[in-house]
Design brief:
Strands 2-4-7-8-11 form a five-stranded parallel beta sheet, with no helix packed on it. The protein is mainly β and about 220 residues long.
Length: about 220
């Protein structure tokens, strides 16, 4: 199959809306403010390894969009509207999701979040001030990710890798952390109310405090 490549291209506002895009390479392309609602990208590349540049998705409409087995390294997703966004089996190292919205606001007191990010490399990705409460975020690599001011309350973070990770900088109450590598998590300094961990994980966390968990 011939793989198409687009370089330095400005994507039209509704050029790709609702389409299935497979096996396409986008080098330094501009998707800012583009409507990508329900658009599906499969086996696509958005990272220019020669110039170490990602694509620009700032302020794009990405409700229900999906990326499967794509390279999203260092792409900019600032201010995107991304309710229901799916990112699966992707490389997203260094991508910037700061100020992205995964929320559906019903009223000033009523809202919910929706995102499906799994089996992806999120090392050094920026999720600062992002609300990802009660979302499906399992089997990801979170090494060095910036989560300052973010909320993951009630989300499924099971099977994750959390090395070089600042647990104190975000809200993880009610999260499922089973089968995760918890890195330097200190149960004395992080609010773990409602968090799920396995007995082996609890034993490891307690052992750092000199406590032996029996049974």
């Amino acid at each position: 199959m011939l793989i198409k490549t687009f370089e330095n291209k400005r994507i039209g506002i509704d050029e790709l809306t609702g389409q299935v895009i497979s096996g396409v390479t986008f080098l330094n392309c501009d998707f800012s403010k583009v409507d990508l609602s329900e658009t599906e990208f499969v086996d696509c590349i958005f990272y220019d390894s020669d110039r170490q540049l990602g694509c620009n998705f700032r302020s794009a409409k990405m409700k229900g969009a999906s990326f499967k087995r794509c390279d999203l390294s260092v792409c900019a997703f600032n201010f995107v509207s991304a309710l229901g966004l799916e990112i699966s089996e992707c490389k997203a190292q260094g991508a910037d999701f700061s100020s992205a919205s995964f929320m559906n606001v019903i009223s000033h007191k009523s809202w919910f979040c929706s995102a499906y990010i799994n089996k992806s490399n999120l090392a050094y990705t920026n999720f600062s001030k992002v609300n990802l409460e009660r979302c499906e975020l399992w089997d990801n690599r979170w090494t060095g990710a910036n989560v300052t001011g973010a909320s993951f309350s009630g989300s499924d973070l099971s099977g994750g890798e959390f090395n070089s990770f600042d647990w104190q900088s975000a809200d993880f109450t009610g999260c499922d952390l089973t089968d995760s590598e918890l890195g330097d998590l200190d149960i004395r300094t992080v609010n773990l109310e409602g968090v799920k961990v396995s007995r082996d994980q609890m034993s490891e966390l307690a052992s750092r405090l000199g406590i032996n968990v029996l049974g």
